[in-house]
Amino acid sequence: MPETSKERSGPLTDLRVIELGQLVAGPFCGQMFADMGADVIKVEPPAQGDPLREWGRDGFPLWWSVCARGKRCITLNLRTEEGQGLLKQLVAEADFLIENFRPGTLEKWGLGYEELKKVNPALIMIRVSGYGQTGPYSSRPGYASVGEAMGGVRYLMGEPDRKPSRAGISLGDSLAGLFSAFGALAALHHREKTGEGQMIDTSIYESVLAFMEGLVPEYQFEGYTRERSGSVLPSIAPSNIYDGSDGMVIIAANQPTVFARLCKAIGQPALKDDPRFKTHAGRGENMAELDAIINDWTSSRTIDEIETAMVEAAVPVGKVFRASDMLEYPHYKARKSLVEVPSERWPGILQQNIVPRLTGTPGKIRWAGPDRLGQHTADVLTELLELTPEQVEKLKQSGIV
After folding, report:
1. Cα–Cα distance, 396 to 373 (Å, whole number)
2. Closest residue by Cα to residue 125 from 133, 117, 136, 135
3. Which DSSP symbol is given to 138?
4. pLDDT tens figures, 67-89
5. Rg (CA), the chain
6. What is the tens place of the pLDDT at every residue in 335-365?
7. Which of 180, 324, 345, 383 is deepest in the core (most CB within 10 A)?
8. Which residues are designated catalytic?
9. CA proximity to 354, closest of 371, 375, 339, 372
10. DSSP assignment, residue 123?
């Protein structure tokens, strides 16, 4: 059975978070708070719940177990006056509120920041949306895929001879959740000095834009537009994916000294003085030829053989991992990168461990996402709002919780 809320550990055990978000961006922010010990109370609509509960292969909605891990989940109908009143009572006992509705939705329900700070002036309200709370696009619905396109990363992903690809994960959502958590802790630091809460406005497209390196100034001052380049970076060689006889590896040896060590490791020490590859610019211009030489060497060797040779030569190398590779890999095991998480529905489930690691106050994953909708409703309402079990049952029968 899951641990009780009193057994939380980590640097944020004295903080409480109310999470109204659904799907990925807001809940990922909440997941990070829960991992670090905060009491995260996830609010879902009665009878419906977060759609992420149903995402996954048929019969295996496993993503939910990661995104909702460590959270207490309650139901509350925010479209009703009674539900709105109960949320305000919870907000009065909270440090943060996370939401990722379309801008204007909470205001329509009388739950905007201006209303909630009347209840709790110290509240830090984290608002995640596709385009932000202001600007001409603010009222538009915005999923991560659209934010990734507007932020610039989609144009750069994939092969140059076809339409842009995607990462295969909800990259924009996760980045927005990450930046939101960072902003929340910055706002907490300010509150510790002044007592003042504030609102955090995170947009998905700007979260993507924030990690686009020199994309904009390169165009502004050089007129240079980055294009899709597949698995390589233009003019950076060798640094690519190469075939082994039993998988694929990344070899990165684009610095002169590292390249020299690579040439020796593959039995061609004279290659470093080849006019085509002697300079950084030359290696970039002749990337295809250089990659073919390296791939010819790697393709007849196993991943273990390639890694052994590269490590001995001090050349950066790494296997291209799939989930099956991660389960038994020595480094994963040594660092406990995957940990078994308590779960009623998925006994023995492995999940990615907490990042980053704190040496003094490490966080802890206490349980996988609660399976039953409203699993902690009675506990939270009786504990925090001091309602009686009879009052909670009455709210349940009326569809408020």
Report:
1. 12
2. 117
3. T
4. 999 999 999 999 999 999 999 99
5. 25
6. 999 999 999 889 999 999 999 999 999 999 9
7. 180
8. 173
9. 339
10. -
